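Recap slide: DNA-3-methyladenine glycosylase, sequence and predicted structure.
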Amino acid sequence: MSVLFTPSDGQPRCLWCAASTDYIAYHDSEWGFPVDDDRRLFEKLSLEGFQSGLSWRTILTKRENFRAAFARFEIDRVAAFGEADVERLLQDAGIVRHRGKIEAVINNAARAQDLVREAGSLAAYVWSFEPQGGDIPYLASTSPVSVAMSKDLKKRGWAFVGPTTVHAFMQAMGLINDHAEGCVTRAKAQRAREAFRRPA
């Protein structure tokens, strides 16, 4: 079975992004490229939590709504949310209205503050889990490092950060280059990873 598809521009890409033009744009410019920005890392962990039980396409089409609803995922601002914000978010038709997931994002923002104080940045913590070597099968749903990071986050009080959620986060944020062999974006993502300065 092929893991590639070729859209009208003639450039082969990972098969999963064939669903829509939004997916192709996300695949070409974001997915698998390394990120060291705490706001973006927290946003992605939050959105992966919202995706649980849903498709990423559902979340991607609502991403700007999520950003507006959650103060652009600025960690300190979200950590200050209270019960009135939870009720406001539960009325927001532009996002996924799930109390548990909404409350998890607010809780996780406070836990992220703890991590920043301890590790210096969320990025430094996240990248300490980067897998070494090519020991992760292509498009696996979990990995030893995602299991380890999930376990550690849960121990620290985070919610909606299971091993599958964390592995998808790692794929998207460039800790793993999971673009298929032959995908036009694989080499670009690899060059970006090679040039990337890991946060200390």
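The beta strands are 4-5, 13-14.
Residues 33-195 form a domain with the Endonuclease III; domain 1 fold (CATH 1.10.340.30).
(End of recap.)
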